[in-house]
Amino acid sequence: MQKIGSEAFTNTREYLKIKCEVPQKPAGWAEDWHTGNAKLNWEQKMVKHIILWTLKPELSDAEKENIKKEIKTGLENLKGKIPGLVEIKVITEGRLASSTTDLMLDSTFENEDALKTYSKHPEHVAIADGKVRPFAVSRACLDFEV
């Protein structure tokens, strides 16, 4: 019997088994089975996804206001429906005369993978195809880590 500190063990192997047990993988652990590479997802940075749209010039002011409301409602209602989408806001009001676009999407994601999931999510695609693309003449995108 060996004594280590105040505890007695029959052998070193028993000590190592009890005292040096490998801890459970933490929440957020992801492993690429193909390469064996492992990483902690919490090490990934959050991502901002900013979109600026300009609506078609042939639309009347009333049509533009209605379209902006529908885009805002549609996109903001995605919160809680898409995994990894942390915050989403569409800016449609308060535009100054110096502005060159009509509306802005300001969204935050847990990480870049969550942004990729959002871009392909059927509810997002339905809004983009039905409420945005038919009425937008231009789109500018800026994605960055925060």
Could you characterize the architecture of this molecule?
The protein is an alpha+beta fold and 146 residues long. Helix content is 30%, strand content 31%. The protein has four helices and eight strands, in the order ββαβββαββααβ. The strands form three sheets. It has a four-stranded antiparallel sheet. The chain starts with a strand and ends with a strand.
How many DSSP-defined strands?
8
Number of helices: 4
- What helical percentage do the residues reach? 25-40%
* Percent of residues in β-strands: 25-35%
Secondary structure class reads alpha+beta
Rounded to the nearest angstrom, the distance between the terminal CA atoms is 55 Å
Shape: elongated
Order of H and E elements: EEHEEEHEEHHE
> What is the arithmetic mean of pLDDT?
84
- List the strand order in the largest sheet: 6-7-5-8
- Which ranges are low-confidence, i.e. pLDDT below 50, for 5 or more consecutive residues? 21-27
Summarize the structure.
30% of the residues lie in helices and 31% in strands. It is of the alpha+beta class and 146 residues long.
SSE arrangement:
Blueprint: E1 2-4, E2 7-9, H1 12-19, E3 29-31, E4 38-40, E5 47-55, H2 61-76, E6 85-91, E7 103-109, H3 112-120, H4 122-132, E8 136-145
Antiparallel strand pairs: 1-2, 3-4, 5-7, 5-8, 6-7
Helix pairs in contact: 2-4
